[in-house]
Amino acid sequence: MIEEIAEKLNIPSAQLRELIDRGIIKEVEGEHPHLFRFDKECGAIENGTAIFVHEKIDIVRGFPKIRRAMILDPTIKRHFDCPTVMIEEKMNGYNVRIASIGGEIFGLTRGGLVCPYTTEKARDIIGDAFFKDNPDLVLCGEMVGPDNPYVPKDIYDIPSLDFFLFDIKKKASGASLPIAQRLRLVEEYNIKSVRIFGEYPVNEASAAAREIVKELGRQNHEGIVIKDPQTKIPPIKYTSSQSNCGDLRDGFRFYNDYGRPFFFTRIVREGFQAVEWNESEEELRERCLQLGESILKPMVYTIKSRKRGEQIGENVQIKVKYLETAREFEAHLNRMGIDAVFEEPEKVDGGYLVKIKRLYQSTNDKTMSVLNGELW
Hints:
Shape: globular
Distance between the termini: 51 Å
Strand content: 25-35%
CATH topology of the largest domain: D-amino Acid Aminotransferase, Chain A, domain 1
Strand order of the largest sheet: 5-13-12-6-11
Structural class: alpha+beta
Largest sheet: 5 strands, mixed
Number of strands: 17
CATH architecture of the largest domain: 2-Layer Sandwich
CATH superfamily of the largest domain: DNA ligase/mRNA capping enzyme
């Protein structure tokens, strides 16, 4: 098995054994074929790469991190050595890879874990026609909607949870199909796609991107991804001010559970965007007020809530067809080390609604200790 996996990953078998010994490759429990995953990036092998061991070895390469443009115009011209670029919407949900393993469809999160909830939704939304014809391809997209246990957003007029494709990759190599080929498959198999705003000459793309991002910001949407139509050059992303501030509002509610780089990078983005967009004093003041409120108001809410003795947490929900999926999802969160309280399921049309409170223990403990007089 080691030799076959090493050959498929194009690394020496001795290196593979070392990665297992060092815990970079971890075994994963759950209701799925025997699974190992890369817990960290290793050379050209992405974090989240999944290795399924069943009657054969199936490898689903991880989804690579997309680097961010802080300034649009010079970055696009410097990064893209191609005549045109495509601009797509970056939706606000959670990153999912959907693949066929041994004839069954599974949904993988970015870290390479099979999520029972995502799997149920993927089987329901996508069906099996695509994978019967294309078993060696992986659908990459965003799960979006209010019934989202990871990133609940009620901004897309989606009643529950839906999947929007943004890439199709080859399973073993991780290579992306050209965008035109991807769009043909999307149309053929009736798979929903993220919005594509158009194809633009590189020298004109920054002006178009800026106007698109401004409009997306007015809708409280996240931003854009800029791509080489042939997918030979890695894509880059760029987000709206409203998205940056929305992330800060969410993060500062649970200030002691989020890493400081999470906050710092989003504040820096605001500075570069304000300069590139040559904002007036009035526009800059409005940005400052929005940024300040995004930082301070959620913290004040958290501190007051904890002072009243409330547990600090995030209320999310899932809608499942089968109660077994909810039980498997609870076990999945436990394996991830996420502290969550599940309420009794409510019977609804088409299945069950399960409300969940995800607790942020570090913020709970830190806030109470400071309120009790502990020094920082």
